[in-house]
Amino acid sequence: MIAYLGRRLIQSLLILLGVSLITFALLYLLPADPVRQIAGRSATPETVENIRRQLGLDQPFIVQYWHYLARLLGGDLGRSYIQRSEVTELIVSRLPASLLLMVGAILCELAIGLTMGLIAAVKRGSVTDQTLMVASFVGVSAPQFVVGLLLLYVFAVRLGWFPIGGYGSWRHLVLPSLTMGILGAGWYARMMRSSMIDVLRQDYMRTAHAKGLARGAILFRHALPNAILPVVAMIGIDIGVFMGGIVVVESVFGWPGIGQLAWQAIQRVDIPIIMGVTLVSAFAIVLGNLLADIIAPFIDPRIKLR
Amino acid sequence: MRRFLASTVAASALALMLGMASARADDAVDPNTKQGGAITITYKDDVATLDPAIGYDWQNWSMIKSLFDGLMDYEPGTTKLKPDLAESYEISPDGKTFTFKLRHGVKFHNGREMTADDVKYSLDRVTNPKTQSPGAGFFGSIKGYDDVAAGKADSLSGVTVVDPYTIKFELTRPDATFLHIMAINFSHVVPKEEVEKYGADFGKHPVGTGAFRLAEWTLGQRIVFERNPDYWHKGLPHLDKITFEIGQEPIVALLRLQKGEIDVPGDGIPPAKFQEVMSDPEQKARVVVGGQLHTGYITMNTTMAPFDNVKVRQAVNMAINKDRIVQMINNRAVPANQPLPPSMPGYDKAFKGYAYDVAKAKALLAEAGHPDGFATQLFAMNTDPNPRIAQAIQQDLAAIGIKASIQSLAQANVIAAGGDKAGAPMIWSGGMAWIADFPDPSNFYGPILGCAGAVPGGWNWSWYCNKDLDAKAAEADSVVDPAKSEEREKMWSAIYDKIMEDAPWAPIFNEQRFTLKSARMGGADNLYVDPVHIPINYDNVYVKDVQ
After folding, report:
1. Are the beta carbons of A84 and B45 separated by less than 8 Å?
2. Can you count the helices (H) and strands (E) in chain A?
3. What distances in angstroms separate CA B79 from CA A59, B74, B182, B532, one per listed residue?
4. CA-CA-CA-CA torsion sign (B516, B522, B526, B531)
5. Distant-in-sequence, close-in-space partners of A303: CB < 8 Å, separation ≥ 6
6. What is the dihedral of CA A38, A21, B410, A93, to 10 degrees?
7. Summary count for chain B: helices (H), strands (E)
8. Which residues, in sequence order, are CB contacts of A115 under 8 Å at separation 6+?
């Protein structure tokens, strides 16, 4: 176990290092010149060169990357080129909003996905089953910005049940969480369905039936706990999907999280922020996967860590 | 702009008899306007910084103006200069010395009185390379600028504190734009102790002398301004509070305005909803339309064949159907025939430019040795409506045989291509087009049409460099005497007319501004399309429900 953990940690660090190198290189290769973004259009060539020197952007790639890594190890993600604030401060101030959205999205996708999966499994082969599976397929494939705008239009503009974008109360959280959750709900519905069908086929289910237990008791006390665990263990892996989704969903709903920050930074070629958000997201994804793997054997004893 | 001329000419003609030009102004505030009330403005993007030495986008530009003051400012809603923190000023007859008398009793938001030392400190700070100010170059005419810019000195030798309420500027050359320079944000006055306290984070903790002070800044969510009770200009601002809500898509902002939740969508009316808004009489009545110091143009790289031939460039000018392009963007602009926009002093009303004439364009192209046209590339920014406009230009060019392939790229990449001599044969400037820093004709020349901008990384994407015009521009800018400003404007008009003869650009249109406001917003229309305050003049507007 310890050896496995150690190996996974080293792997994770290497992945993060790789992500940082690739992102840094891609941003370095952009034809856009960040110094000119900072210097503005009225700057003289001397001013431009002076800023370039101060930021160390006149150095060769490898030196720049090395300096970035050195500062990164000290917890310093640098200063935004456009906003001129510490990237760490910008990310930290927006992280709570993104985490809140993530929790909301997980609750939505579990509630919707597991329910759909459960019903589909119980009604296997019926029209309900087929309808639910088609719906899950639509949920998985619908672009999030379309879903977001649709929900916004129907529930906020037309019906007025929820605020039109913004942040602050639980009512603000519902629509963005739902938009993010619908995608995951599709996956969970499918996984839940097959997991449940798997469990219902087991011998002990038949035994329970034979003993004359009520159908509800069989389903909710015996089948569900066994079926649900392997599905829920996938949440860690979800984080990767969420990190992609928040960029779109936060922009649509004006949700002040790191996805919105990233989107603005990309448009303004604000390289320190792009690097920072990428690294934080990569860290979250690696951590999520790691946790999912570590938890797996506790949930399903058939899995062994080696 | 004519008003500007009339009033200053009369005042300064008299003053000149005493050997000095001077001015003094106090604009009147409507005494019937009651103070109070709060408004909400929305923006999509984060506010970058509120440091006047650094902020340089249209969103923070106007916000900074409400937090800070400079020696000079403009009459609200106009381009007419007036003294602001200065009470009066004098210009020496040679146009190289400007002396400003400061107002007494002006206080920073921290309670300390502002004096001439603060003005000097602020200018030393903005020109110091360590500040990394995008506006440092504006102060190039002040004596000692080169030493500060090169890091050889910490202080501008040409700026002298005569006494706590008098400051003197010595310039290396007569500079007719200097009063404008003293009105731009980069010259706004900051208190040294606060800058030193917050260091690089001063932009998040701005302290100035302005009408409002910062009450709250929650990153990514909202910025709140509250009225500065000690503001020197009695009666201003009218509002108690302004809340800027950040992260709101323009379309969402419009819906919220329609529900009465906000007062002004800072990013304007989203293009997709423009016609819907304008065809609803109730909403249209709340839209204020005004000119903008903006020109959208096509640059042709004069160093690259075949655009090194003036006939080819003239042919392109004649080939573009500007009316059709203006229609394409829902008439949110007016067709342009010269670099200067109509609301800019020096705009030549008599100038006709190149009329749309396909046959003549074809003939010119044949004369230039391209009877069958040629293939080239047109760069454009990839956000709507620019790719659509580029396609319209492409079709117009195809009509005279020029086959232009469109390179639709992110803004930074287009800017990079333009700054590379061999980078882009043609660029549609939309999304990156020139908007004046201050309302003076010289501001459309140097960086975008003068030799100084025709350098790698510069903004003169035509790479047009006419040494003769550079000399004429310098000559025009040495006419400092406000009494001769009409003469100076004529000199500038002649420069732009000559540029159009050489045709390094095909000017396409001048964007108009359309500001949508809630029904409770009050104040003159020109406050909502103020040439130097975008979207609105925060200090002077008011709400009707407290009146």
Report:
1. no
2. 14, 0
3. 44, 6, 14, 8
4. negative
5. A296, A297
6. -60
7. 17, 23
8. none
The span from the CA of A86 to the CA of A273, in Å, is 9
Q: Searching chain B, which residue's CA lies closest to the CA of residue A158?
A: B255
Rg of chain B (C-alpha set):
24
The structure's pTM equals 0.84
Residue contact A269–B412, C-beta within 8 A: yes
| Nearest residue in chain B measured CA to CA from A263 | B45
CB within 8 Å: A254 and B419 = no
Of the candidates B145, B183, B151, B61, the one whose C-alpha atom is nearest the C-alpha of residue B533 is B61
- Residue of chain A nearest B448, judged by CA positions: A41
User: What length does chain A have?
Assistant: 306
Q: Which residue has the tokens 């494939």?
A: A141
Phi and psi at residue B74, in whole multiples of 5°? -120, 150
Q: Which residues of chain A neighbour B48 with C-beta distances below 8 Å?
A: 82-84
DSSP state at residue B112: P
Put simply, the answer to whether A166 touches B248 (Cβ < 8 Å) is yes
With an 8 Å Cβ cutoff, are A84 and B203 in contact?
Answer: yes
Give the count of beta carbons closer than 10 Å to the beta carbon of residue B298.
28
Nearest chain A Cα distance for residue B138, angstroms: 7
Q: How far is CA B380 from CA B296, B316, B389, in A?
A: 12, 16, 9
Rounded Cα gap, residues A204 and A215, in angstroms: 14
C-beta separation of B281 from B77 below 8 A:
no
How would you write the pLDDT of chain B (547 residues) with one tens digit per residue? Answer: 222 222 333 333 333 333 333 443 344 456 678 899 999 999 988 898 999 999 988 889 999 999 999 999 999 998 889 999 999 999 998 999 999 999 999 999 999 999 999 999 999 999 998 898 888 889 999 999 999 988 899 999 999 999 999 999 999 999 999 999 999 999 999 999 999 999 989 999 999 999 999 999 998 889 999 999 999 998 899 999 999 998 888 888 998 899 899 999 999 999 889 999 999 999 999 999 998 889 999 999 999 999 999 999 999 999 999 999 999 998 999 999 999 999 898 999 999 999 999 999 999 999 999 999 999 999 999 988 899 999 999 999 999 999 999 999 988 789 889 989 999 999 999 987 777 889 999 989 988 999 988 988 888 999 999 999 999 999 999 998 878 889 999 999 999 999 999 999 999 999 999 999 999 999 999 999 998 888 899 999 999 988 8
- Which ipTM value was assigned to this complex? 0.78
**B219 interfaces chain A, CB cutoff of 8 Å:** yes
Separation between Cα atoms, residue B300 and residue B366, nearest integer Å: 18
Residues of chain A neighbouring B206 (CB-CB closer than 8 A) = none
Question: How far from A303 is each of A293, A298, A300, A306, B130, CA to CA, in Å?
Answer: 9, 8, 6, 10, 58
CA-closest candidate to residue A227, choices A130, A103, A115, A104: A115
Give B87→chain A minimum CA distance, Å. 29
- CA B162 from chain centre, in angstroms, equals 32
